[in-house]
Amino acid sequence: MDFINFVKDVDAIEFTTPKESLHLEFKKASWKLPKSIWETISSFSNTDGGLIVLGVDEPIPHHYKIVGVDQPDDVIKELFNDNSNSTVINKPVIQNSDVKITTFKGKRLIQIKIFPAQFSDKPINAKGKTYMRTDDGDRLATHDQLKYLYAESQDQVDTRLLENFDWDSA
User: Fold this and answer.
1) Which of 31, 50, 69, 136 could form an SS bridge with 55, CB 3.0 to 4.6 Å?
2) Could you tell me the mean pLDDT of each successive run of 10 residues in the chain, 170 residues long?
3) β-bridge pairing 14-15 and 137-140
4) Residue-by-residue DSSP string for 116-147
5) Cβ atoms 132, 139 nearer than 8 A
């Protein structure tokens, strides 16, 4: 997902599109990171990736209001400090180029791209828990989802066919 061009794609302080989805999450963040951001980062990393926009409130479902981020530099500093803290997230997933400050109608927003993690890096855990993205929400990974993530994360899986074996050998 690319960064949102608010002038082109939104054009108002209050809006209904774009709306939160499998790949888009809005969060209110005035002067510090919202506590739930790491759940979203985990879920985006474990699924298809996505974009988090800080500085947008959702006063009623699917109706959004740009409220801005008062201290974007402090929020970004906290983001990168936590990104490097293994008790917050088990592996760093955010690079400098993934974060952009946008100004729209006098309000500053922070956009954060989250790319899907490499299979060998999964699962990405937030504060010891693994999340998956479904529809427009972050959900704790089910037992079956965890089994899949761990199985896919194996670095050295031997997939060679053995000589002299065929279907009748099974």
Assistant:
1) 69
2) 93 95 96 96 97 97 97 98 98 97 97 95 96 95 92 66 65
3) unpaired
4) PPPGGGPPPEETTEEEEEETTEEEEPPHHHHH
5) yes
